[in-house]
Structures
1.
Amino acid sequence: MRTRAVFIAAAVGLLLALLSAFLFSRTPKPQPPLFAPAANPYGSGIYANGIIESDQAHGENINIYPEVPGAITQILVVEGQRVRRGDALLTIDDSVQHALVEQQQAQAGAALASLQEMRAQPRRENLAIVKAQVESARATLRNAQDQLAKQQRAYDMDARAISADVLDTARNAERIASSNLEVAQRQYELTRAGAWVYDIRNAERTYEALQKAWQSSAALLAKYTLRAPADGLVLAVHSGVGSYVSAQGAYDSYTQGFNPLIVMGLPQDHLQVRAYIDEILVHQLPQPGTIKAEMVIRGTGEHVPLNFVRVQPYISPKIQLSDQRQERVDLRVLPVIFRFAKPPGVTVYPGQLVDVYVAAR
């Protein structure tokens, strides 16, 4: 009985093994594609990945970063909004910088007032005072001279009439009055001459330094309001009111990286495509003036003719399409830029991936 049970178990195991081998060896029926793959429109064409951008004369989309750090207080635009050059896009908290500007403006104003005061010298009222002091000193000297003359005549008539000490006191009084008159006259001349030229120059330099400090702070204050550098379209706003931003941009909690605070593009009547040509296919590119290309919008099969704009003459690692800054790749590509009019009835956006075919040489 035991031997029979062993044979039965072995037979069942063999059948299960054969059944499993049959089931796992079957090839599953492939799923139909979501859309028909794009066909090469040229007999000999180069395929490239492309990314749609706003139409730019130079470079790529306009990435706007703040030059000063702080918390966002207002966002004045929405994505998709057209803006003019100089329009305010958002504001950053500027309370501290605003107070500093007011302080330095007040300091510059005080320095200017002091400079104007020096240039306005002599003041009539001050000149009248020192002139009166000269007249007073002159009268005092005259009185001292009269007293000395009287004492001297009395002494000359009779040396016993007055003592030598009284005569010496009168003489000293006359000398003191003469010196006081000289001091008053010099003070009058000094007051009438006005401020010293070196004091004026020092005041001018102080005012210039404070004014430049105020202008510098005011220029920095203006940077707390981000403005559109050109006419265009707001493509993306990567932060919100209350978020802290810095010169690195806005922190993205999902990617744990930094993005530009605002991305702008030019008006989108026309767009451009940046196609990345594999470095091993670069030699097959025709001369720039004869390049022909078509773009295929994924999911539609729509073919859009492209107009050649320029070649960015720098082969770089292909990391732009994945946006992975830490990615290590060996593939290097040559960016070729094309321009096209937005096709009617088809929606395309900057940042969208497309297939590009370039007619080979």
Note: The domain at 45-55+268-359 is CATH 2.40.30.170 (Elongation Factor Tu (Ef-tu); domain 3).
2.
Amino acid sequence: MSQGVERRLGVSGGELAYRDLGDPEDPAVLLLHGFPASSYLWRNVAPLLEPWMRVIAPDLLGAGDSDKPPDAQLGIEAQARYVRELLGSLGVSSFAAIGQGLGGGVAQLLALEGGVRTLVLIDSVAFEAWPSASVLDAQRRASSGTEVAAALVDAAFEAGVRQEGRLTAEDLAEYRRPFEGDAGNAAFARLLAAIDGRGLAGREAELERLEIPALVLWGEDDAFHAPALAERLGDALPMASVALLPGCGHFLVEDAPETVAPLIFEYLRSRYLGAPHAHGGGAVAVELGRRPREKEGM
């Protein structure tokens, strides 16, 4: 993410690189990327939020410009702990959390621990339904040494972005950059191996007790996590709204930033900040809600 000055802060696993944008006195919103992305994923979202909120966008440990220690835990439970330590050092105990992919898993864990006031999940890992078959295949290929990180990053975005031409060569180069060279390839393999499915299975009942506004956004053509997961998350989270976007894949904020960023902004503005929607020129906000259940026997 190019906006703002990159900062660094030590947590128990190493140093996290992060951006801290906006007024520190404004309500905080945490942006959590998935794999194999970095905080660069939020470059089209953060500028819309910054005038209203304090935007904190870290690179998860092992990703982006954060440290890539050879012996640190990198699963979502450890990542949630590192992010909580970062927020504690920044004096943030109450916040909105937005998570994509693996970052959505981290966001769910933070919400279950407390402090999250509004939750946005975008094509998130969930329940026991991860890692995907594609990730398992990538883990086998990486462990056998048949493919280097750059090829696997390219493959992930080729499968995960459905709108042709959305990602430029410069965008792909930025996603590859943290994993270049022998050290980068080793770091990529460690991060990939940490996608282990642990931390969310069997916690549906806890999600059902999570009385916070939640927005679930999903690409209908997500090649890694089926849209049925969005419906299941919508059913589990008692205050959830679900939106499926046609023609979009796993990296929804890359496929349709001009749609997704305003959706997130308006949702947070209404449900997190409690501000009324003000009509001006341009697009009209769409009210999201649960899909009506079919009646029995139909």
Note: The mean pLDDT is 91.
3.
Amino acid sequence: MKSPSTTFSLLFSLSFLPAFADHPTLSLEDGSPGPITTISAVTLSEGALSVAQVNQFIFFDGLSDAELLAYSGRPDHVHSTDRVISSSLNAAYGMNDDFTLGFSLPFLWRTNLREAVEQRTGVNGVQTTLEPTPKHGGVSHGGGGHGGAPTRPVVENVGDSDGLGDATMYAQYRFLHDEGADRHLSVITGMKMPTGDTNVRANEGYLLAAHHQPGSGSWDPMLGLAFTQGAGRWSFDASTLYIFANDGVRNSNLGDVFNYNAAVSYRLLGAHEEGVAHREGVTHEHPTTLDLILEANGDFRDEVVESNLIDPNTGGNVVFLSGGTRLAWGHSWAATLSVGAPVLEDLNGIQSEPVMRLLFGVSKAF
């Protein structure tokens, strides 16, 4: 049966696609070490079912009020956010020993969105906050200046954006399985579907920009590769996944995404059978295990396009270095925890920079 690192890592990777530099995971214990967010090439055993609840928190260094005011008046609005949270329900089923089907459904939060907006002093001295000018085709309701003194910028608490995210269906096919060398190679393909909420509004009532919505409104195919090499208590994994973004809600395109990952895992505690690290059907007299995992997870995103105009304050490249652990027990349960920090940041324009990523999840195999 598949290891806690395999389905758990693929589902973990897919569950967090709407967030920046994210990943989900699902887990089945067979006595094998393996990664958390890097996708393992090992597929589920035939007839095996795995379900999981996985979570991700990305904490940002939000822009200060002074910084937002300094960037006000630009044709491209600058926003700040404190954190992005994803909580997902996932499931996977082994059609045969080399072919797995899976599903992921996330719920997303973006907290404390802020931006500089104009405030006009009315004829009677009444302060009126104007809604932001629609950014590159974004939707606004109201605003537009109804007389009064010249405008001046103020920082507005736009609010939070939360709701159901886009679901993902995927298939993983292992086309290389060298049991003697414990080497595996798989292809992953799937589709992100427009199930997410796209009508979340700001505190002032206007519709948030498309890239701040939980859902995209687009059908986005994906394609990737995963490689796993077992070596006794060690496992070495690498994976790539490319998401082809199509046009979605309100004539927007949120940009292609390229995830690239590498991981090394070590079985610190618990039973391990030398030479059969990823063999299907492995059982042990003492199933409780503890793995240590070190990963590098990269995330490259294109800039957002709205109404045929590029938003220069979106997209870029981030690489997280993460340390994690997995506790598995009873041949059916597994709990995973990973903490990471960015070691490479190359963001476009003016954006809130990520400072930490926390991942955790629990899975059950049947």
Note: The domain at 7-365 is CATH 2.40.160.40 (Porin).
